[in-house]
Amino acid sequence: MGLQLGDIAPDFTADTTAGEIGFREWKSGSWAVLFSHPADFTPVCTTELGRVAQLKAEWAARGAKPIALSVDSVADHNNWIPDIDAVNETTVDYPIIADPDKKVAELYGMIHPNEGDTSSVRSVFIIDPADKVRLTLTYPKSVGRNFDEILRALDALQLTDRAAVSTPVDWRKGDRVIVPPTVSTEDAKAKFGDVDEVKPYLRFVAAPEA
Ligand code: BEZ
Questions:
Q1: Within 13 Å and on the Cβ side, how many CA atoms surround 51?
Q2: What pTM value is reported for the model?
């Protein structure tokens, strides 16, 4: 069985485009978004890694550090980065892990042999400041991810940690939120103000203050 939500994200040491890093030391108590891609110099990956670079200010605003991985070498990553920068009019300045021996990819279950070959699929792990795996996503090689959704999920994780609420379908920052079943309506009113009780089990309150 692969990594599950709530597991402690395994630590590792790896060569990256930013030199050798120890994952936990590099992360140093921040949120991290560890994501794998199948191969350098491939089309979908070129758009994905560029988008992550374009979102630099968004990761920083959330105290989150992105880090990419593929089973290619540091030399290949470094040769590819100018293409990503040029195509996406950005600067890739987050680390890309080189994992030619698949040590990290296997540790995190990023290799899905039924997906064509033994390169990594498009995995995403959102890891919290306490090094817990909080969200995982797995996309096939042919489907590019939506990093706006990953930011949205990060917002929801950070809000629900802070305010003990839940987020409804398609929630976005600032939208109303759901009172969890474990909280009484009376307590929710005291804590959040007005409660919109659509059903006894479906109660909304305004977005809590940041
Ligand atoms: C791509 O990035 O386009 C890609 C890479 C590996 C397999 C399929 C697509």
A1: 15
A2: 0.97
